[in-house]
Fold each of these.
Amino acid sequence: DSAIVIPDRKFIQLKKGSETAANVDWYTLAHAWPIGILRLRVASARGLHGADISFRSRKGTSDPYCVLRVGRMSERTSKVYRTIDPEWPSDEWHDFLIYSSRQTIRLQ
């Protein structure tokens, strides 16, 4: 895996003689406002590995779902039963709060 997940943290370097701990708004740092909302929809997948093997057919099937991760938040799609080419419902959306433009999206 080459994905990097950025945690929901903000770092401020405090230097002597410039910005001191007394001038930092610690509440704002701990409870940052999101810069936006990302709305994701997983439409489909093709050619997934069949984990459930049936004696009636030579092809394996699965009950796939997708896990979406943005920062420390995660959501899971519904399962699509007995297929290796799933299509998820068009009305299934997942919303994530975004705190930094550098946050990454990871699908599993």
Amino acid sequence: DVADAVHRAIMGKGLGDSFEVRLQGLFPAHSEDHIYTITKDMVSLPADMPVKLGTEFKINRGSIARVTEDDGKYLVLDANHQYAGKEVVLKMTLMDILNIGNCYIDELSFGEDC
């Protein structure tokens, strides 16, 4: 999990040290099951909102799909998360170490006291 990865990365670091945390699998894998080809007439948009690459639509149960191809008649929509299958790299600099009392790092959660 993210907190564990950050915890491991800061061990032995001092104030001002910069480092990276690489997270794989944070988002689901890209799935071809979330790619849809539709005809343009299946989309009803206001005339002042042209369909172009990157246009986003709400589809089934509020999911978001982006237009990835447009051949004039058909649109290809990608409903995968925009970061599906990608590695996330956090670039960090240790700026301060806060006195958090008697808490251990694995007891901390955002917005809560130990």
